[in-house]
Amino acid sequence: MNNMEIAIISGKGGTGKSSISAAFATLNGEVLLADCDVDAANLYLLFNPSHEEEEVFIAGEKAFIDYSLCTNCGICVDYCRFGAISFINEKVSISEILCDGCRLCSRICPENAINMVPNDKSMMYSGSFRNGKMVYGRLSPGEENSGKLVNMVREKAKEIAKENNLETIILDGPPGIGCPVISTITGVDKVVIVTEPTISGLHDMQRTVEIVKKFSLPAFVIINKYDLNSDMSDQIEDWCRQNKITIAGRLPFNKQVVEAMVMGKSIIEFAPDNEISKNITIIWDKITKQKK
Amino acid sequence: MMKIAIASGKGGTGKTFVATNLFHALYKNNYRTKLVDCDAEAPNSIAFFKTKLIKESDVTQLVPVIKTDNCTFCGQCHEYCNYNAIFILPPMKIIKVIEDLCHGCGACSVACKFGAISEKPVSLGKVASYSLKNKPLLLEAKMNIGVMSPVTVIKAAISQIDNQSDIVILDAPPGTSCPFIQTVASADFVILVTEPTPFGLSDLKQSVETLRKINKPTGVIINRAGLGNNQVREYLLREEIPLLLEIPFKKEIAASYSRGEIMSETDSFFAQQLLSVVENINEQYGNSNNKW
Question: Which residue, among B61, B60, B6, has the nearest Cα to B37 in the 3D structure?
Answer without folding.
Answer: B6
